[in-house]
Amino acid sequence: MQLNESTYETIFLLYIDNELSPKERLEVEDFIADNPIYALEMEALKATVLSAENIPYAFKKNLKNQALETSVEELEQDWDTNYTTILKEDMQAIPGLSTSFKNTLKKETASEGKIITPFRFNQHKFTYAAIAACLMVFIGYQQLTKIETLPSAASPFVKTEISKVSPKTNQPVKTIQEAISKSQANNAGKIQRKSLIQQASIAMAEPTPDNGSLSQTVMKEMPRTYNNPMTIDAIPLTISSANLDAEPTEVEKELTSYEIIDTEDPNRTIYIANFEIDGNKFRGLTRRVSALLKRNKSEKEK
Amino acid sequence: MTDIEYNDCVDNFADGVYRFIVKNIRHTEDAQDIVQSAFEKLWVNRAQVLPEKAKSYLFTVAYHQMIDHIRKSNKMPLEEETSIPHQPINQGQAELKQLLMRAVNQLNPTQKSLVLLKDYEGYSYQEIAEIMNLSDSQVKVYLHRARLILKNKLSAYAPTAS
Fold first, then answer.
1. Tally of domains within chain A
2. Which of A7, A56, A238, B15 has CB atoms 3.0–4.6 Å from A215's, for a disulfide?
3. In terms of residue numbers, what domain contains B3?
């Protein structure tokens, strides 16, 4: 505790409020003894303390009476509780009636019906049912995915063989797959084109009327949906053992794509977008935009 | 708290509670009502109140009821203290006491309650803080301000009194 000119008042107030320890009180008293000028200050503060007064409360008796009245009620409650315990003990002491006598007092009642529940749903059955349902869903999904991933050979058109004999060479004509495998061995550069043929799901042999020669058209079958209309890539192709080894013709290189659009379909949406702008107009537009940006920039700088 | 302990509380604390209230509101009948209701509350809650906390409980209840009473009446009745009996004291002390009480009555209700609880009942800052629902530091600051106000008022009254 530091007593000085700036702290003495607070410490004096604590002193008169009896909030200082005995040691601190002694320090204050020593400080005042050493500095008599603060004695008057201490006296002035001590004068603000109210002296004890005896102001009696005249109605203490009433407060006590209230307590006594209520205590009588409590006594009654205690007596009631004691009395009930005594009564209970007496009741237990009296022997009960025999069961045979009780049965004679009973009256006949209608026989109780038995409720038959055909199916009781419990947790085990629910678990089995859930497992069975999951298995069914899994197997069904597998079956569906198998159907989807079946090779194009599933199509009735795929394994259609081209004519057995070439009209030019009189040699047996190989099937498309055999021809493709052969061409893969011969020319690696042809892989892309041959794979296209291999991927074709429909190989349709179409005999030409003239010369009895055969020309085949490989067709791609696309799924028929609204967003993806059926597209047929028709490749006029004359496949024989002779021309499979030869270089592909120009017609073969260019794949012609046809799209069949169902124009009468009310749900079909065709998106058409066209935007044209003159060069001068575009320049004018860019100038205006740049001028606007510059103006905004200058306003921000301001 | 048993019935006997409750009656002991009436004997020991009723005067102090009444003095504290009557000095604050300066109305004997209202002070008596407040004291009675405070003891009623103590009686109702005697099972929860420990005997050593009974005094603090009584003062807390009485203080809050007094605040409610002041708010309801919205005024401080200026009843003369002639109705309060005084102990016979000598002339100088009587003058000083009157001056001091006049100065105390000019304090605001919080400062007045603080001074009364400190000087009459001798409560510590912490106990006063619990009764008046204030912090210890608030009690210290408010009480010190009240003391300085009283000191200034007494020094102002002193020349006229002399």
1. 2
2. A238
3. 1-76
- Residue A187: Cβ within 10 Å count: 14
Quick one: how far is CA A45 from the chain centroid? 73
Structure tokens at A169: 């060479």
Give the model confidence (pLDDT) of B44-65 as tens digits.
Answer: 888 888 888 888 888 999 988 8
Tokens of A18: 């009896």
Indicate whether A139 belongs to any domain: no
3-state secondary structure A95-125: CCCCHHHHHHHCCCCCCCCCCCCCCCCCHHH
Q: How far is Cα A202 from Cα B133, in angstroms, rounded to an integer? A: 94
Mean pLDDT of chain B: 80
Residue A118, in any domain of the structure: no
Q: Distance (Å, rounded) from C-alpha A30 to C-alpha A14?
A: 16
What is the CB neighbour count within 10 angstroms for residue B52? 9
Among residues 57-86 of chain A, which lie with CB inside 8 Å of chain B? 57-60, 62-64, 66-68, 70-71
What type of residue sits at position B45? Answer: N
CB contact under 8 A, A64 and B10: yes
Measuring CA to CA, how many Å separate A83 from each of A76, A92, A96? Answer: 10, 14, 22
Residue with token string 């607070």: A10
Question: The domain that contains B18 carries what CATH number?
Answer: 1.10.1740
A17 touches chain B (CB under 8 A): yes
pTM for the predicted model, two decimal places = 0.44
Q: Considering the domain boundaries, does residue A218 fall inside one?
A: yes
Residue A290 in contact with partner chain B when CB distance is under 8 A: no
Q: What is the CATH number of the domain that holds B125?
A: 1.10.10.10
Q: Which of B15, B86, B115 sits opposite A50 (nearest CB)?
A: B115
Residues B1 and B71 occupy one common structural domain: yes
